[in-house]
Amino acid sequence: MSNTEKFTGRVWVLGDDIDTDIIIPTEYLALPTVEDMKQYGFSPLRPELAGQIKEGDIIVAGKNFGCGSSREQAPEIIKALKIKCVIAKSYARIFFRNSINNGLLLIENSDIQDVVKEGDEITVTMGESIEKDGQIFPITPLPQNLMDIINAGGLVKAMQKRNGIIEEG
């Protein structure tokens, strides 16, 4: 994903303080893989949500998204659900870093949540803006080093690429 890539996705609207226990409840962390866990994503809040999300959808949320424990499975579940990105008013610091390290794109914007409804489509132009029905909401681009990590699929893959040891296949 380049800093100028453009994509459109269907919106799922969530509120403020969506914590990691809502993203993936503790009782499902014992399952063997993230693929096994993903069906339980967001289940305390909306049990049907994980089954309704389609590849390329976008989560739009309020402030403090990803608060709570620092479990890495939270961004992994969102990625496994094939969410294109999360747009929120703000993020918990450790969730933000865990998401980047796992290759999940996060965008901060304080206005879009107030104008979208669930099911709306929005278009994101990376590093520039979010567009909804002709309204433009500017976004601040992520630094290139963080985009490199996201584009590689996460920190481990980015370091493998940088060091020339990416596994083939």
From TrEMBL:
The keyword Cell inner membrane does not apply. Keywords: Amino-acid biosynthesis, Branched-chain amino acid biosynthesis, Leucine biosynthesis, Lyase. Pathway: Amino-acid biosynthesis; L-leucine biosynthesis; L-leucine from 3-methyl-2-oxobutanoate: step 2/4. Transmembrane segments: none annotated. It catalyses: (2R,3S)-3-isopropylmalate = (2S)-2-isopropylmalate. Belongs to the LeuD family. LeuD type 2 subfamily. Heterodimer of LeuC and LeuD. Catalyzes the isomerization between 2-isopropylmalate and 3-isopropylmalate, via the formation of 2-isopropylmaleate. This is 3-isopropylmalate dehydratase small subunit. The lineage of its organism: Bacteria, Bacillati, Bacillota, Clostridia, Lachnospirales.
